[in-house]
Design a protein that fits this description.
Blueprint lengths: L1 E4 L5 H14 L6 H4 L1 E3 L5 E3 L3 E2 L8 H9 L7 E3 L7 H18 L13 E7 L6 H15 L7 E7 L13 H6 L3 H6 L10 H22 L8 E8 L3 H10 L6 E5 L2 H4 L1 H9 L3 E5 L1 H4 L8 H21 L12 H11 L3 E2 L6 H6 L2 H10 L2 H16 L5 E7 L5 E6 L6 E8 L4 E6 L4 E6 L5 E5 L7 E6 L2
Helix pairs in contact: 1-11, 3-4, 4-5, 5-8, 13-17, 14-16
Length: about 475
């Protein structure tokens, strides 16, 4: 008798993801809507973007141009006011649009403008507080206004709830002292009122959001100055989110956090889901993919799916002239998150990584993922996030009247090695092993011999009942 099940260790994560799938499932939607998410204010935002927050300034024009071409089709850029690159991003977008318009045949004044671009930016913790936040937001809008070639929708977030000296790279006093005098004069130092400064900032964001929302509704569709499309937060703890929602008149639409939050803080993710707040993940590659050395068996699942989905996509879309690029583990990970309606904003400077992070690559994988693919990813990705190795867990239940011996068969030499020399009747022996491995059971007189092949996958359990 063989039973395969899911180990209890993963159940909290899988139950949470199941709820995410049921609430936000992307299955039965048109291609145009597949990678879009409807925020709780009724507006739509792309689920796939590109991160430019800490990108070297000299690389910005190149990365912007590479991501705005039709084959990449990026419509979302993530940055922050603290990165001091909003002006450079705006200039690069406008320069790309002008060059593209000039090179396009028949690019006259009647040509429609490029599609709207969504830009996420953030208020740094030195600018928390009502007046300081208004200064930061206006500076961001002024710098992004250099994009006069297409409409820009701005998603304005509070970058952190407070400055915290316990975080090594945060230097509250030093950063406060280095601020321009007009910022200091605008409001009290936020690090001296850590529990309330972000609440005053939220009041400022609410006012600005309502003003821009009214302006957007009055506009006639012509390209105008950047419009605040949504407001939200980043890196807030669950208690901070609860405190914010208690006082908010406008509910946050976006929460941005590190990718490991998805699996290590299920109560926070559940809270965001309950309030229809989009979770947008940064650090996806560093937090998950780059931990392959810590969990090779979990990464093996992604590699296996990479081969399977490459064959599937290439067979469905054969192109005799051009070989379709292989589906990478990174694309599968991003597609899995997007399928769960989790936004992703990976950063990539190389063309190869930009392609595997692109909406077109992710969309192809989402369209071809099956429930079995999802099930395997739900085992692999939490383990990668935690840096834990996966095994197949097998349990041997002795249903005979006498004791039994358990051996493991070496996959190369077929040598039978004893792993348990006494399993009494009715007892259970549990072993951690690998898919495809073979165990051999003998009775104490070695008259009965039975082989058991492990069919469970990594992260699964299998039960063998030893009987005549």
């Amino acid at each position: 008798m063989i039973i395969v099940s899911t180990p209890s260790l993963l159940l909290p994560f899988l139950l949470l993801l199941a709820r995410l799938h049921s609430a936000y499932c992307n299955d039965d939607v048109d291609d145009d809507d597949l990678l879009m998410f409807k925020l709780n204010n009724g507006m739509h935002i792309p689920l796939v973007g590109v991160g430019m927050g800490n990108l070297q300034h000299e690389l910005i024009p190149q990365v912007v141009s590479a991501n705005l071409i039709p084959s990449q089709d990026i419509r979302l850029i993530d940055t922050a006011h603290g990165s001091k690159n909003e002006q450079k991003i705006g200039d690069a977008v406008a320069s790309f649009d002008r060059a593209n318009r000039a090179q396009t045949r028949g690019g006259g004044s009647d040509k429609p403008p490029p599609p709207a671009l969504h830009i996420i930016t953030k208020v740094w913790y030195t600018h928390l507080g009502y007046e300081r936040t208004k200064i930061s937001v206006q500076e961001s809008l002024n710098e992004l206004a250099s994009v006069n070639t297409r409409q820009v929708y701005v998603h304005m977030l509070l970058h952190w709830p407070r400055c915290n000296d316990e975080i090594e790279w945060m230097n509250c006093e030093e950063e406060e002292n280095n601020l321009p005098q007009f910022v200091k004069d605008a409001g009290p130092p936020p690090h001296l009122d850590k529990e309330n400064a972000f609440k005053d900032s939220w009041r400022a964001l609410e006012e600005l959001y309502n003003q821009h929302n009214a302006e957007r509704q009055r506009s006639d569709g012509a390209i105008g100055k950047p419009i605040i499309f949504s407001i939200g937060v980043s890196n807030f703890e669950l208690d901070d989110m609860k405190a914010l929602l208690e006082m908010a008149h406008v509910q946050p639409q976006i929460y941005q956090g590190n990718s490991w939050v998805i699996f290590q803080y299920p109560y926070l993710i559940s809270f965001l889901r309950q309030h229809d707040i989009l979770f947008q993940a940064y650090g996806v590659m560093s937090g998950i993919i780059q931990r392959r050395q810590d969990s090779p068996s979990a990464f093996h699942i992604l590699s296996t799916l990479s081969h399977e989905l490459t064959e599937e996509i290439q067979s469905v879309n054969p192109d005799k002239g051009v070989k379709q690029p292989d589906v990478t583990e990174a694309t599968i990970l991003l597609a899995y998150l997007v399928h769960s309606n989790i936004g992703v904003i990976p950063r990539a400077a190389s063309k190869a990584h930009q392609h595997e992070n692109s909406p077109s690559s992710i969309k192809a994988v989402v369209r071809n993922m099956t429930p079995d693919h999802i099930k395997r990813l739900e085992r692999a990705i939490p383990a990668l996030t935690r840096g834990e190795e996966l095994h197949a867990s097998v349990s041997f239940i002795n249903a005979l009247e006498g004791a039994i011996l358990l051996h493991w068969m070496h996959p190369d030499t077929n040598e039978e090695l004893v792993v348990s020399d006494l399993i009494r009747p009715g007892s259970v022996e549990v072993q951690q092993t690998h898919p495809g491995h073979v165990f051999v059971v003998y009775d104490m007189e070695r008259k009965i011999r039975k082989e058991f092949v492990v069919e469970a996958g990594y992260g699964e359990e299998q039960f063998f009942q030893v009987e005549l």
